[in-house]
Amino acid sequence: MQPQDQHIDYKQLYEQQLAVNKTKEKIIEQHLVAIERKRDRIIALSAELAQLRRMIFGTRTERFVPAPDATKGDLQLVLDLSAETIAQCKITSATTVEYIRTRVEVIPVARITHQDLEYFSAF
Predict the structure, then answer these.
(1) Which residues have C-beta within 8 Å of that of residue 55, sequence separation ≥ 6?
(2) Domain boundaries, the chain
(3) Torsions phi, psi of 56, nearest 5?
(4) 75 phi and psi angles, rounded to 5 deg
(5) CA–CA distance from 67 to each of 42, 56, 64, 70 (Å)?
(6) Residue 37: what pLDDT?
(7) In this predicted structure, what is the pLDDT of residue 27?
(8) What are the C-alpha distances in Å from 18 to residues 13, 21, 24, 32, 63?
(9) Rounded distance, CA 89 to CA 84, Å?
C-alpha cells in the first residue's frame, strides 16, 4: 500500500508512454520501408538471375552464344541500369542482321520391332 501523501500523476505517465510509443512507431515505419526496398531488390535480382539462367542453361533459342572473335570485354554484361539511365539513352544507329537458315532433312530409318525378332528367331 502506498501512503496517502504520495501522489501519482497518471497524466504525465500517459504522455510519457505516448511519446515512447510514437518513437517506436517511427522506428517500425522506417523498418517497413527498408523491408519493402529490400523486397523490391530481391524481386529484381530474382528476375535478373532467371534471365541469366535462361541465357546459360536454356534451350538453344534462349542461350547467349558469343561471336567467335569476341573479346572478354565484349562479353561483359552491364546489369546495373536504372530507369533514368535507360530513359536518357537514344538510339543513334541500327544495324540490319541477315542470316541463312539451312534445314537438314531427316530420313526415317526402318526399325526392327519385337515381333520381327520373334519371326527371325524361328529360322
Answers:
(1) 62, 63, 64
(2) 10-65+75-104
(3) -90, -50
(4) -85, -5
(5) 32, 15, 10, 5
(6) 94
(7) 96
(8) 9, 5, 10, 21, 59
(9) 9
Q: Helices in the chain by DSSP H: which ranges? A: 10-57, 83-88, 114-121
Please tell me the number of Cα atoms within 13 Å of 73 on its side-chain side. Answer: 0
Measure the CA–CA gap between 99 and 105, rounded to whole angstroms. 19
- What is the full per-residue pLDDT of the chain (123 aa) written as tens digits? 455 668 889 999 999 999 999 999 999 999 999 999 999 999 999 999 998 888 888 777 766 666 777 776 666 555 566 667 666 777 777 788 888 888 888 777 777 777 777 766 665
C-alpha cell, 39: 523486397
Hey, what's the cell of 15? 504522455
Identify the residue whose cell numbers are 546495373.
Answer: 80
Q: What is the total residue count of the chain?
A: 123
Decide: pTM greater than 0.70: no
